[in-house]
């Protein structure tokens, strides 16, 4: 029986990817690296330092900076990003997700957060959802990022549940792969082809309801 839900943040509860993208775009411009939407999309679910490496590589500058300089660049991006996050309000919760979370709580499901973002607690706070997620996986504690199952395994462990008692909710293919590898049931939100590995896919957050999930679980 399902007893808990482990949530991704960006692309599931809110759309921070636009803010991440803008902040990285600004940094890329300052380094004379050509930005593209494709590059922005490839960074979804990828950790901060891995994102920086991908951007530098795309710009042919993978070997141009020392580790200390890279840390500085990542901090610069994060400062820009936090300024944008601080403007967020509950209006930035994606359609239907507040009702979904309320329904899960009312039905006694336990919730945890499996976001790669070190800023996740701040984002939850701005969305006024911190109370919903007393258990947040600390991304600094991870050895491997998504698609490695570690973050979803920890998300279930924080709830004292077995993976098979949990549903993971994700918008990125790497995240769905992580949920599956952790042995949890995967709910994908987005393009059915891109997320074909998920146990069930919904095209948008508004379609993600407990009733819709239960109907697909019974099939
Ligand atoms: P930070 P998620 C991820 O969040 C974002 O999708 C990704 O673009 C970002 O680089 C990563 O968090 C790290 O974020 O710099 O705030 O630590 O999808 O795992 O909720
Ligand atoms: Mg995501």
TrEMBL record:
- Give the residues annotated as active site: 8, 10
Q: Name one Pfam family in it.
A: Hydrolase
> Which amino acid positions bind Mg(2+), per UniProt?
8, 10, 170-171
Annotated substrate binding lies at 8-10, 24, 43-48, 51, 77, 115-119, 146
**Cofactor binding annotation:** Binds 2 magnesium ions per subunit.
Q: Which residues form a coiled coil?
A: none
User: What biological-process GO terms show up in the record?
Assistant: carbohydrate metabolic process
One annotated GO molecular function is:
magnesium ion binding
Q: What are the protein's UniProt keywords?
A: Magnesium, Metal-binding
Note the Gene3D superfamilies from the entry: HAD superfamily/HAD-like, Putative phosphatase, domain 2
Read off the CDD domains from this record: HAD_BPGM
Cofactor(s), names only, from the UniProt record: Mg(2+)
User: Where does the secretion signal sit in this chain?
Assistant: none
Annotated site location: Important for catalytic activity and assists the phosphoryl transfer reaction to Asp8 by balancing charge and orienting the reacting groups? 115, 146
UniProt-listed PANTHER family? FRUCTOSE-1-PHOSPHATE PHOSPHATASE (PTHR43481), GLYCEROL-1-PHOSPHATE PHOSPHOHYDROLASE 1-RELATED (PTHR43481:SF4)
State the family named in the UniProt similarity comment for this chain. Belongs to the HAD-like hydrolase superfamily. CbbY/CbbZ/Gph/YieH family.
Q: Please give the name of this protein.
A: HAD family sugar phosphatase
């Amino acid at each position: 029986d399902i007893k808990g839900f482990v949530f991704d943040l960006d692309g599931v509860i809110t759309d921070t990817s636009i803010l991440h993208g803008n902040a990285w775009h600004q940094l890329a411009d300052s380094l004379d690296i050509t930005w593209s939407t494709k590059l922005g999309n490839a960074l979804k679910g990828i950790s901060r330092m891995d994102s920086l490496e991908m951007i530098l590589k795309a710009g042919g500058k993978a070997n141009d900076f020392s580790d200390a300089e890279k840390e500085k660049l990542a901090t610069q991006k994060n400062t820009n990003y936090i300024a944008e996050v601080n403007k967020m309000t509950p209006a930035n919760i994606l359609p239907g997700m507040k009702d979904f979370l309320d329904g899960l709580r009312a039905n006694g499901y336990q919730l945890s957060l499996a976001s790669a973002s070190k800023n996740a607690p701040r984002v939850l706070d701005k969305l006024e959802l911190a109370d919903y997620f007393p258990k947040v996986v600390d991304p600094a504690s991870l050895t491997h990022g998504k698609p490695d199952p570690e973050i979803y395994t920890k998300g279930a462990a924080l709830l004292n549940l077995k993976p098979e008692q949990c549903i993971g909710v994700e918008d990125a293919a790497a995240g769905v792969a992580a949920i599956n590898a952790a042995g949890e049931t995967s709910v994908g939100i987005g393009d059915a082809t891109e997320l074909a590995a998920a146990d069930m896919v919904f095209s948008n957050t508004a379609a993600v309801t407990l009733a819709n999930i239960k109907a697909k679980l019974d099939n």
